[in-house]
């Protein structure tokens, strides 16, 4: 599904054939599929309206109007029948039920990076709240939206919460002024608290491993600390220096190769393919010899939220690899082998990394840097894939299909779907 | 005695009077003169002159009396005879002289000695003075050095102090900055809290406004209610549901813990297995030491301990028990054995080093010899085994393949049999081929003949039909019924005639199979010849059609 201005376009994933077309009242800011893929919600933040469309019955419609309360965020509940709207200024979260047309309110939600999280199995929802200058976390049962637990956290300014994939542990981390990560069990007990250092800027990003065995914490000091689930103590620190000296690391460097043009075959006026191949630069991967020094960007000292530290963290689906990006070294993706807790590969690109995502089925990583190429890495090697087409297609973000066979590449105005062939066994 | 005075000789030799006058100044003048005489053991010429100077012919008496007086004062007997003076006692004079000479010798010797000593002392003194001078120089030097070093030491200490001071300053600064940071942080927190409270108040106000307004707008417009995802109806929120929620939550947590515990148990079991393995390996490594007499006693005891341990632990069936004591026992026993292994390895190392250094113990020699013997034995064994294996292989092969001759014969037999069979078959084949050829030829001839006959027949038929037709048309009405039946009869006759012909053509007797095939071939050739043949069949067919249409 994609939205264009005020229209919602639904296409088939394998053939990109147009299936449905819906029209909303105003420009759509956000769309989301329900968990059973039967409904799509379109949030129009400016008008404070959420419109829901059904795929089975195109004639069915639903409109939720927040009125003067305004709308800042909207999302589905895991059962696909409730919509949670966050009103302006984070006054409250309204839970609208599509089954019973009833409304519930959650007061005092926290305006932070990630305030509402659902467990993977969709049973429980954790909401970060703040009353009287203190942070609280409430856990609700998604079946009937009953409050299960409500406890306070020892944080200065809770910045985010995240469930572990097994749904039993909740990680909460503090604002970047304080390095503090708290781990709560499902019933609200504090299991452990982790603090690496006191004064410098703290946690930037957090990721759970798919087996819930590890919690990776990326911080502003360019390091990733990994905690284990048995003792909640740090088992290792992964550093991101600008020079890589270890012999066991493979460094793939993206290198531009100038296109070879046969001067005999030049024709006038030049054909379209020739023109595009002349002006679009091809690139491929080269293996650089260790030691390699990466491009290091010194952050501006007196701005808030400096571009320092580990900003992106992602575990692979088979729990074997961790991909990180150090914002100081914005052109490199660092891939760590979790079984050995060592750096295994570094991908050095020509431009700043915009987004990377792991394949949900295999250990394959797709990276995009704002050029018209998507980069794929797997333990077997890495490859550069050029998006064919005229003009510039600057890929800003990408998203894998849940089967791992296709991915969507998004630029500012367009998107395309990249299909990956399965290997014949 | 008297004062020794060192008076220069020339003064003496010049004038005795002067001397006398000079010496008269002193109290012990004669002694001084005597001393001069005695002391200066100078060349005899000077002595002679001196002697002549002392005693002349005028003052013999005086000089003799003087000498006598001196001698008596010195303790010598008087030189005068016992009677009144003037008669000299020669013997006493000679004795006195002798004594005086002896005294002189003695004095000379003493003087020599004293002079020697004096010289020695002088040289010693020089030496000592030199040493003293050198030592003084050294002392000066070392004093200067000391001063220099002290100076440096002072400088370094001052530097050290400075650095310490700097460090302290830095630490203080850091502490100050930290304090500043913490104070600022608290300040910011306080300010933030204040702002947040204000913000909360605004939010509350806004919330009230929003709720109070009772906007009709805040509503949900839905076409129709959608069923729940799981198809169930929504439940009321009651205490029961709360309790159930709690239950479910605890169930989830418990299942997670149980899963983890299972994993941990598995891990534990694995690790225990590994430890057991390690223990067994270590035990298997240690017994070879039994041969060495030295360590025998220790090992003997130790081994018995180990065996006991093993016995105990195996009896207790480790896998099921996981209590503290068993675990501790296992780890302790492994530690013990590991230590023993370490000792063993160390001893071996020592032995090796000793062996390298050349100090061969009896034991080492024996052990090496033993080792060599054993290796030789093993090599022999290996060779024997290899030979045995070879012979066995050969035997096996022979058994499998029997005798060479018989196998060859058999093989030949088989081959001959096959060859004969093949030859027979070839013969048969060739015969059949010939037969086929013959029959084909005859058949072709027959076919040609048939064709000709057919032609003739057709012509005949044609004429006959014409004749018939003509006759029939003559009396058609009467014979209408019979014509259709005659046609099939004619056809049957024709087909029968054809069939009869085909076997008649193929008159040569052959075996049953070829006959059938020939029939088939004949039919085929007939079929193929049909279109190839003249128009007659077509005409016949057309004729048939014509007849049918009628």
UniProtKB/TrEMBL annotation, chain A:
One Pfam family of this protein, by short name? WD40
A GO cellular-component term linked to this record: microtubule organizing center
Q: What is this protein called?
A: WRP73 protein
TrEMBL record, chain B:
Q: Which family does it belong to?
A: Belongs to the ADIP family.
For this record, the Gene Ontology CC terms, alphabetical, are: adherens junction; centriolar satellite; ciliary basal body
Q: What top-level branch of life does the organism fall under?
A: Eukaryota
What protein is this chain from?
Answer: ADIP protein
* Region annotated Disordered, chain positions: 477-511, 526-550
Q: Which InterPro entries match?
A: Adhesion_Centrosome_assoc, Afadin/alpha-actinin-bd
Regions of compositional bias (Low complexity) in chain numbering: 502-511
What is its subcellular localisation?
Cell junction, Adherens junction; Cytoplasm, Cytoskeleton, Microtubule organizing center, Centrosome, Centriolar satellite
Coiled-coil region list = 125-212, 254-281, 368-395
**Which key words are in the record?**
Cell adhesion, Cell junction, Coiled coil, Cytoplasm, Cytoskeleton
Predominant location: other
The yes or no answer to whether the keyword Cytoplasm is present is yes
The record's Gene Ontology biological-process terms are: cell adhesion; intraciliary transport involved in cilium assembly
């Amino acid at each position: 599904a994609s939205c264009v201005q005020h229209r919602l376009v639904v296409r088939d994933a394998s053939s990109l054939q147009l299936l449905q077309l819906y029209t909303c009242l105003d420009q759509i800011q956000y769309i989301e599929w329900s968990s059973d893929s039967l409904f799509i919600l379109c949030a129009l933040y400016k008008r404070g309206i959420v419109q829901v469309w059904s795929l089975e019955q195109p004639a069915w419609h639903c409109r939720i109007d927040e009125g003067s309360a305004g709308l800042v965020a909207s999302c589905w509940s895991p059962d696909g029948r409730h919509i949670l709207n966050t009103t302006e200024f984070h006054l409250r979260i309204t839970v609208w039920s599509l089954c019973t047309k009833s409304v519930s309110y959650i007061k005092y939600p926290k305006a932070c990076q990630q305030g509402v999280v659902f467990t993977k199995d969709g049973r429980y929802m954790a909401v970060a709240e703040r009353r009287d200058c203190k942070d609280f976390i409430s856990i609700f049962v998604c079946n009937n939206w009953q409050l299960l637990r409500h406890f306070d956290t020892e944080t200065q300014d809770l910045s985010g919460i995240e469930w572990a994939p097994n749904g039993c542990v909740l990680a909460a981390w503090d604002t970047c002024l304080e390095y503090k990560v708290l781990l709560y069990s499902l019933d609200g007990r504090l299991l452990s608290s982790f603090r690496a250092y006191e004064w410098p800027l703290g946690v930037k990003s957090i990721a759970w491993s798919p087996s819930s065995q590890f919690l990776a914490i990326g911080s502003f000091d360019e390091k990733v600390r990994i905690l284990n689930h048995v003792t909640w103590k740090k088992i290792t620190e992964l550093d991101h220096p600008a020079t890589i000296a270890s012999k066991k690391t493979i460094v793939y460097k993206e290198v531009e190769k100038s296109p070879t043009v046969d001067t005999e075959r030049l024709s006038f006026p030049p054909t379209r393919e020739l023109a595009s191949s002349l002006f679009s630069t091809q690139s491929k991967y080269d293996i650089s010899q260790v030691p390699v020094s990466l491009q290091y960007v010194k952050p501006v000292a007196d701005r808030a939220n400096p571009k320092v530290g580990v900003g992106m963290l992602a575990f692979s689906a088979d729990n074997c690899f961790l991909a990180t990006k150090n914002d100081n070294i914005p052109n490199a993706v660092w891939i760590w082998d979790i079984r050995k807790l060592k750096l295994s590969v570094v991908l050095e690109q020509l431009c700043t990394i915009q987004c990377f995502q792991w394949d949900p089925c295999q250990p394959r990583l797709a990276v995009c840097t704002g050029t018209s190429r998507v980069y794929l890495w797997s333990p077997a090697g890495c490859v550069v894939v050029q998006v064919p087409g005229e003009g510039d297609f600057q890929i800003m973000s990408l998203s894998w299909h849940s089967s791992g066979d296709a991915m969507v590449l998004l630029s500012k105005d367009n998107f395309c779907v990249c299909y990956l062939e399965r290997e014949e066994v | 005695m008297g004062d020794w005075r060192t008076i220069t000789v020339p003064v003496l030799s010049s004038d005795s009077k002067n001397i006398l006058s000079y010496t008269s100044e002193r109290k012990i003048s004669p002694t001084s003169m005597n001393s001069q005489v005695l002391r200066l053991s100078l060349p005899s010429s000077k002595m002679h002159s001196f002697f002549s100077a002392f005693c002349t012919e005028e003052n013999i008496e005086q000089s003799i009396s003087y000498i006598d007086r001196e001698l008596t004062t010195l303790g010598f007997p008087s030189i005068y005879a016992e009677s009144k003076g003037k008669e000299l006692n020669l013997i006493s004079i000679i004795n006195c002289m002798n004594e005086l000479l002896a005294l002189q010798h003695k004095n000379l010797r003493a003087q020599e000695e004293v002079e020697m000593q004096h010289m020695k002392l002088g040289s010693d003194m020089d030496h000592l003075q030199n040493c003293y001078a050198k030592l003084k120089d050294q002392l000066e030097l070392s004093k200067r050095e000391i001063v220099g070093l002290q100076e440096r030491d002072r400088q370094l200490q001052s530097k050290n102090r400075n650095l310490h001071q700097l460090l302290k300053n830095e630490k203080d600064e850091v502490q100050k900055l930290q304090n500043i940071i913490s104070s600022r942080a608290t300040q910011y927190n306080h300010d933030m809290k204040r702002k947040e409270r204000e913000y909360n108040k605004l939010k509350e106000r806004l919330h009230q406004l929003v709720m109070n307004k009772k906007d009709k707008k805040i509503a949900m417009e839905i076409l129709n209610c959608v069923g729940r995802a799981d198809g169930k109806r929504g439940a009321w929120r009651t205490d029961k549901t709360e309790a159930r929620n709690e239950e479910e939550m605890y169930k989830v947590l418990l299942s997670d813990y149980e899963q983890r515990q299972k994993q941990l148990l598995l891990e534990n079991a694995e690790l225990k297995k590994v430890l057991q393995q390690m223990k067994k390996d270590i035990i298997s490594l240690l017994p070879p030491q039994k041969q060495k007499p030295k360590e025998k006693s220790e090992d003997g005891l130790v081994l018995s301990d180990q065996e006991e341990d093993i016995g105990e632990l195996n009896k207790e069936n480790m896998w099921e028990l996981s209590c503290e004591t068993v675990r501790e026992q296992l780890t302790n026993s492994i530690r013990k054995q590991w230590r023993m292994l370490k000792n063993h390895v160390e001893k071996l190392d020592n032995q090796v080093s000793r062996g390298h250094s050349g100090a061969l113990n009896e034991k080492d020699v024996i052990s090496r010899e033993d080792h060599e013997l054993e290796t030789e034995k093993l090599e022999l064994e290996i060779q024997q085994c290899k030979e045995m294996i070879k012979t066995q292989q050969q035997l096996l092969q022979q058994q499998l393949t029997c005798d060479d001759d018989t196998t060859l014969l058999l093989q030949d037999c088989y081959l001959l049999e096959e060859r004969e069979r093949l030859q027979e078959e070839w013969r048969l084949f060739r015969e059949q081929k010939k037969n086929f050829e013959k029959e084909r030829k005859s058949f072709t001839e027959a076919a040609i003949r048939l064709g000709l006959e057919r032609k003739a027949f057709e012509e005949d038929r044609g004429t006959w039909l014409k004749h018939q037709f003509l006759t029939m048309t003559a009396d058609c009405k009467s014979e209408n019924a019979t014509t259709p039946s005659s046609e099939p009869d004619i056809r049957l006759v024709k087909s029968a005639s054809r069939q009869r012909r085909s076997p008649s053509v193929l008159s040569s007797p052959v075996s049953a199979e070829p006959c059938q095939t020939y029939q088939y071939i004949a039919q085929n050739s007939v079929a193929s010849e049909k279109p190839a043949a003249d128009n007659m069949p077509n005409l016949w067919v057309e004729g048939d059609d014509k007849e049918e249409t009628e």
